[in-house]
Structures are given as C-alpha cells and as structure tokens.
Amino acid sequence: MPYQMMSPRLPLGRTYATSGALALGVDLSAYLRRHQCGDWGEGLCDEDRQANEDALIQGTRLLSCYHTPAGDRLFIITEHDRSVTTALLPDEY
Predict the structure, then answer these.
(1) What is the model's pTM?
(2) If DSSP states are collapsed to H, E and C, what string results for 21-78?
(3) Do 70 and 46 form a contact (C-beta atoms < 8 A)?
(4) What is the CB-side half-sphere exposure of residue 8 using CA atoms within 13 A?
(5) What is residue 6's DSSP assignment?
(6) Does residue 14 sit in helix, strand or coil?
(7) How far is the C-alpha of 60 from the C-alpha of 74, rounded, in Å?
(8) Mind listing the pLDDT tens digit for each residue in 27-69?
(9) Considering the domain boundaries, does residue 1 fall inside one?
(10) Is the pLDDT of residue 3 over 70?
(11) Is residue 47 in some structural domain?
(12) CA end-to-end span of the chain, whole Å?
C-alpha cells in the first residue's frame, strides 16, 4: 500500500529541518509523511528497519533514510518522546 494511503503510526511533534535539508530543494513534507506512516525509506538495512519497528513499541528514537530524485540522502529522526522530528543530511547528524 502506498504511504499516502497509510495511517500515521507515530506523532511527529514539532518538525524542524536543517539548512542542509532545506537546501536540497525537495518537498520535505512528503518525506515526513512517509516517515510518519512507517515507510522508513530506501537507505536502511533490515536490522535498522526492525529497530524502528521495535522503537514504535519501546518508545525509542526512530530513523529513516531516503534517497532524493537527485541522489542525495535525507535522514529524518523522531526523538524517543515523539516531541521533535528533524529532517537533516547525513553529515549534519
């Protein structure tokens, strides 16, 4: 099922983007929606995907990694308490 049709699996809290993420010139809201719906992106291994599934239950931090159309990587991180979600580049991590 496409992420647009999925229900949110977690609250994002306040959303932020670093200057690097903003400089990509992509629609960050689409990536935030994918993250919120549990589409962890193309850049995670199976172990990291499972860690996110566990984090939904255990209340720990979540990390998604997406590839933009230009080939850049974009991280989205939601903190353990779900108060803040940040879009950033890997070198800003």
Answers:
(1) 0.93
(2) HHHCCCCHHHHHHHHHCCCCCCCCCHHHHHHHHHHHHHCCCEEEEEECCCCCEEEEEE
(3) no
(4) 10
(5) S
(6) strand
(7) 20
(8) 999 999 999 999 999 999 999 999 999 999 999 999 999 999 9
(9) no
(10) no
(11) yes
(12) 30
